[in-house]
Amino acid sequence: MSKANGLNEKWNHNSIIGFTDTETAMLDFDNTPFRDVKYWTLRAMKWFKLEGFIILKSSENNYHAVFNRKVSWSENMRIVAWASLLSHNKKLLEWLQMQCIKEGSTLRVSPKGDKPSPRIVFRHGKQDRQVKEFLSCRDRIKRIIKKLAGC
Amino acid sequence: MAKKIAVYGSYETKVPVKQRYWKTVTRRYWKTRKAYSYMKKGKLIKVPQGKQRYSKKIRQRVWKTTKRMKKAVMSGRYEFHGKGRDLYKAVVKAHQYMPKGFIDVSAEKFLEQPEAYGVEGEWIEREVES
């Protein structure tokens, strides 16, 4: 598999910049092959009627999923708990616990160490609501990163 | 709820060194303190009588914050919400002022008084969870 190429600008800062929201259903699959990620996101989308989703690759075997339908915080956590329990993904369960503590789901946008910034690898269904908002916010963060990288 | 920008990770900052010192106090002072704590608990206070009132000195070990500073590695997180321009400025400022724990603040308020929310330091590369 080819090496991931994300943001081209060199990111010298050691801080991590991410996107946080309570109304967007998001999943963080660590150490999971793409086939499984696609399977579980499709199942979650159908089960919770989430209209559509995008999958972002953050690094090798690490993926993020963002769903289109606007959800409440409790429904958001229901979706993550359902996915983590059925997929037996311990990392996803850990991520769920962290999001519950801070009451908001966060996904990384900036590069982190050697890892590039996550980029879209798969799209499915509608993407006109929360996915659109996520992408616009992601663009805004990327513009900030570009400016910071130029400093 | 508004969408937020999270800035997080580990950082290095300088914190004052705490040290334990010996403090000499008279037994009278010690007894007064003891009596006061008894009084607060609603117990009977016995006033020391005669010689006992002015007896020996005793030593106690107490913690004090010194003026010396040491480097410490800590972790924290900012959650910014607000307008585009303010968000950019806040993220830039977040690279100077490190968060004291978990800070959920509007970018505008943070820009007014960044030192109230963070301490000066530098972000360092270390494995962190999102």
What does this entry look like structurally?
The complex is a heterodimer of chains A (151) and B (130). Chain A has 151 residues and is an alpha+beta fold. Chain A has one domain. Helices cover 42% and strands 26% of the residues of chain A. Chain A has a 4-stranded antiparallel sheet with strand order 2-4-3-6, with helices on both faces. Chain A is globular and about 45 Å long. Chain B is of the alpha+beta class. Chain B has 2 domains: 71 residues, no CATH class; 45 residues, no CATH class. In chain B, 27% of the residues lie in helices and 48% in strands. Chain B has 4 helices and 5 strands, in the order βαβαββααβ. Chain B has a 5-stranded mixed sheet. β1 of chain A pairs antiparallel with β1 of chain B, so a sheet runs across the interface.
Helix content of chain B: 25-40%
The mean pLDDT of chain A is 90
Low-confidence stretches of chain A: 1-8
What's the domain count of chain A? 1
Backbone CA Rg of chain B:
24 Å
Q: In angstroms, what separates the terminal alpha carbons of chain A?
A: 33 Å
Sheet bearing the most strands of chain A, described? 4 strands, antiparallel
Helix share, percent of chain A: 40-55%
For the biggest β-sheet of chain B, the strand order reads 3-5-1-2-4
Shape of chain A: globular
In round numbers, the mean pLDDT of chain B is: 84
Q: Count the helices of chain B. How many? A: 4
Distance between the termini of chain B: 20 Å
How many structurally independent domains of chain B?
A: 2
- The number of helical runs of chain A is 4
Please report the total strand number of chain B as a whole number: 5
What structural class is derived from the secondary structure elements of chain B?
Answer: alpha+beta
β content of chain A, as a range? 25-35%
Can you tag this structure with a few keywords?
heterodimer, A: 151 residues, alpha+beta, 4 helices, 6 strands, globular, disordered N terminus, B: 130 residues, 27% helix, 48% strand, elongated
